[in-house]
Design brief:
By secondary structure, the chain is an alpha/beta fold. It has a domain of 120 residues. The protein is 39% helix and 21% strand. The strands form five sheets. Strands 3-2-1-9-10 form a five-stranded mixed β-sheet. The model has no long low-confidence stretch (mean pLDDT 93).
């Protein structure tokens, strides 16, 4: 076999990977500092007019350089924000251009590592970019296809992300299995019930093996958001009242708690509004913290801290969250119990989605051999516990949380394009 000139692209909400078939070599290509993941982050440094990506972008931003950070860009697909713009380096730039720039960089790094140009790609997509809106969902795929072509891919095909993860799992099994793939990513939760076997691993058409697919627009960034709203934003004034007994408007906090809308809090209009709100606030100390956060444009820093706290709660019942940029002595005590309560409604929706998928397939839960977990957010304890309890007779396997989809897409690209 020869090396393939096609690749699999997992453009993720939080992290991205690219893989290709290379005889005797791993499928996934190193993209930054020897790691196969590139965080889906762009930082535009206004001080020296440069652009950085991935971990380097986060480092530049957290170092305090003046500029604009963009993260969770994939969440814009299928929304009316996709045709909007933001200000970067003193000029207006369309969000479409930002996504193309990131995809070009992703492609450039992969080609440099592989030593060849990729003109064909199988790109992963969630089962639903947008819930309950087929027109918006199709628009999201069409937009991503256009972005990929603008980034330099001449031929583009798509594969559902949980099916790609299934292909990665299939490469290591020795017998036929009925597998439920649970892919909890940064922006979506996707599921596939699929029959896998070593005998079928090289087949190009696998439609007969896929019993059902389903997805819901809930992912790790939503867990971050509701942890922040429940446990952090009240320290900045969420839920407090004005002198007229009205609540402080919540929209500022929702923007700051949502990765792809944080920059909306930095407009002059919002700043003027908040000056008035702060003057009328009953708890002015908390509004002062909010004003400081926005004045210093530390929203992404705070979101990063919340995400770190969420990850730490996977291994501990209680973790301290130090928020020294807001106040030198501000330390919040995060608990897994509070986190579970904050995301319970999200986990319930995910459970309902899985229940509907199994029912649609006409398969009893007891017939499922394996539940295969992948995606960076599948390690959330409450989520893992609830889904595992739905299939007590099945084996529970954890794949490469950040690499299974990319590896599966690389295999699919080789099957489709050679």
């Amino acid at each position: 076999m020869t090396q393939s000139k096609s690749c699999g692209v997992d453009f993720g909400t939080s992290n991205s990977t690219i893989g290709c078939h290379r005889p005797g070599a791993p499928l996934l290509l190193p993209l930054e500092d020897g790691k196969v993941t590139l965080p889906s982050v762009v930082f535009f440094n206004a001080e020296d007019n440069t652009t950085s990506f991935g971990r380097a972008a986060l480092t530049d931003y957290l170092a305090g350089h003046e500029g604009r950070l963009m993260r969770s860009m994939k969440s814009l697909l299928g929304t009316n924000l996709m045709d909007g713009q933001t200000e970067v380096h003193g000029r207006a730039i369309r969000f479409r251009e930002l996504l193309v720039q990131f995809l070009k960089e992703l492609k450039r790094r992969a080609e440099r590592e592989a030593g060849m140009e990729f003109s064909q790609a199988v790109i992963g997509r969630p089962v639903h970019f947008v819930d309950d809106d087929a027109k918006a969902d199709q628009l999201a795929e069409t937009t991503l296809r256009e972005l990929a072509r603008d980034a330099g891919f001449a031929e583009v095909a798509f594969q559902f992300e949980p099916i790609a993860a299934a292909f990665a799992y299939e490469s290591g099994i020795t017998r036929e299995e009925l597998v439920l793939v649970v892919d909890i990513g940064g922006g979506t939760s996707d599921f596939t019930l699929v029959r896998l076997s070593p005998a079928n691993a090289d087949k190009t058409d696998r439609r007969d093996d896929i019993l059902a697919t389903a997805g819901v627009h809930i992912g790790g960034t939503d867990f971050d958001k509701y942890l922040s709203l429940a446990c952090v934003m009240p320290e900045l004034g969420l839920g407090t009242r004005l002198t007229n007994n009205n609540e402080v408007p919540s929209s500022y906090y929702f923007n700051l708690a949502t990765w792809h809308t944080i920059n909306f809090a930095y407009t002059q209009k919002v700043w003027r509004e908040l000056q008035d709100v702060a003057r009328d606030a009953r708890e002015r100390d908390k509004l002062a913290r909010l004003l400081k956060l926005i004045d210093c444009q530390d929203g992404h820093w705070l979101a990063q801290k919340v995400e770190e706290g969420k990850i730490a709660l996977s291994d501990a019942d209680n973790v301290p969250l130090q928020l020294e940029r807001i106040a030198p002595d501000l330390v919040l005590a995060l608990s897994r119990a509070a986190f579970n309560e904050a995301i319970a409604h999200l986990v319930a929706k995910i459970e309902d989605t899985v229940t509907s998928l199994v029912r649609a397939a006409g398969i009893g839960p007891e017939r499922i051999d394996t539940v295969f977990f992948t995606g960076g957010s599948s390690g959330v304890p409450l989520l893992r516990e609830r889904i595992a309890a739905m299939f007590p007779a099945a084996g529970h396997v954890e794949g490469d949380l950040f690499g299974s989809i990319g590896a599966g897409l690389a295999r699919d690209a080789f099957r489709k394009f050679g």
